[in-house]
Design brief:
The chain has 411 residues and is mainly alpha-helical. It is built from 15 helices and four strands. It is a multi-pass membrane protein.
Length: 411
């Protein structure tokens, strides 16, 4: 890709557009080390958030219905609408994320989870809407867009590292001296300012897509309509062999997304919080930064062979197993009070995030050979795997005793 002729301005705009896809979800995700201590759900908040994100897959159904009812409407119209919804959701959440309402006799973060749902509509629907739109441009720009999508995790992570978490909570007597309550040191700037910055970045994504779609200066980088139609009708000479390969690749994609979008986010608070809020903060922020790093590897390096990819995934089973073990053993995981324990849990999360992200990018690149149908099928499997992982972990976290949160201030 280094030797490919390309328009730098288009690269920048596509990266900025990709930035808006998962910006809302990733931005709210890196705020969890602060929010789990301040919202009523506590350590179960990540699993509720993951489920809210996956419920946003209703956007896929709505998009399919609209395509059926209005087949002549350009996909660009839907993209405009989605990015506008994402920008509005982030801006409103900045002011409403602490609002609660009683549900079943218990206070719940209804506003936060509802607006998270609307912010997630962008990312969930992008898999079957944004990727096919990229077929209108030369193949070299797919990686650029994916780098932008990766930046939707990198930029919020950098902001979160600057923001900090304020430190460990201090237990102080309550007003009537009857109990101890946790006093949380404030970060450098609060969630309100953080989410307003993300709202501005989401607006930048909308402006960038508007430029990509409308500027005639990029016509030379577009693919001819005849080539698009040929790509849509592409079939392979050995149908049975191709079907077998697609089954394996799509199964891999489903498993990777069940992990990255369902299982891992739901258990991270239980895996990291026993080591301290700073460990959780670093694992979340650095792990999110590993995504664009993996995408950059796809831009600058040759894709791994199938055997090398299998070796990578096999090696990832070790840190993944350690992550799940620490979550299940919470609130007393191994090496809880040792510096080495903090380092090991943070490294495990970063390595696992990077490896899974690279494998997902490898599958997306492979899926392009199936044309528009292949990309849409890959996107649908992505969301199906994510939804399955999120629902399963929501049930396990909230309705079993597998995962345990200790009291912030033991009495």
């Amino acid at each position: 890709m280094l030797g490919s002729q390309r328009r730098v301005a288009l690269d920048v705009l596509l990266a900025c557009w990709g930035l808006g896809t998962w910006l809302g979800v990733n931005g709210l995700y890196v705020q969890l080390p602060l929010l789990v201590e301040r919202l009523p759900e506590g350590w179960t908040l990540p699993s509720s958030m993951a489920l809210a994100v996956q419920l946003a897959n209703v956007g896929l159904v709505l998009y399919a219905v609209l395509r059926r009812l209005c087949p002549r409407v350009s996909d660009a119209i839907y993209i405009y609408g989605l990015l506008s919804i994402g920008t509005l959701a982030l801006t409103l959440n900045a002011f409403l994320h602490t609002a609660t309402a009683p549900v079943g006799g218990t206070d719940r973060s209804v506003a936060f989870l509802t607006l998270t749902f609307f912010a997630a509509l962008v990312g969930c629907t992008s898999s079957v809407l944004f990727y096919p739109y990229l077929r209108h441009f030369r193949d070299v720009y797919l990686a650029t867009y994916l780098v932008g999508e990766g930046l939707s995790g990198f930029i919020p992570s950098v902001l979160a590292l600057i923001q900090g978490v304020g430190g460990e909570p201090e237990c102080v007597p309550s007003a009537d001296n009857s109990t101890l309550v946790a006093l949380y040191p404030p970060p450098r700037f609060d969630t309100l300012a953080f989410l307003l910055v993300l709202g501005g970045l989401s607006a930048l994504s909308l402006v960038s897509f508007t430029s990509v779609h409308n500027l005639r200066a990029f016509d030379s980088e577009r693919v001819a309509q005849a080539s698009l139609e040929k790509d849509d009708e592409a079939t392979a000479p050995k149908e049975s062999l191709v079907a077998g390969r697609w089954l394996v690749v799509l199964s891999l994609m489903a498993c990777l997304n069940a992990l990255s979008n369902g299982v891992l986010p739901s258990v991270q608070s239980y895996s990291c919080m026993p080591y301290g809020v700073r460990a959780y903060h670093l694992a979340v922020s650095l792990g999110a930064m590993a995504n664009p790093a993996a995408c950059l590897a796809g831009v600058w390096l040759r894709p791994l062979s199938v055997r090398a990819l299998c070796a990578l995934l096999s090696a990832l089973t070790l840190p993944l197993a350690y992550i799940l073990a620490t979550a299940l053993l919470s609130p007393e995981p191994p090496l809880q009070h040792a510096t080495g324990g903090v380092l090991l849990i943070v490294v495990s999360w970063v390595v696992t995030s990077a490896g899974v992200s690279y494998a997902r990018m490898w599958v997306y690149g492979w899926a392009r050979r199936g044309g528009a149908r292949g990309m849409r099928l890959c996107g649908a499997v992505t969301q199906a795997g994510s939804a399955t992982g999120s629902l399963l972990l929501f049930l396990l976290v909230n309705y079993t005793r597998l995962f345990t949160q200790p009291a912030a201030c033991p009495q």
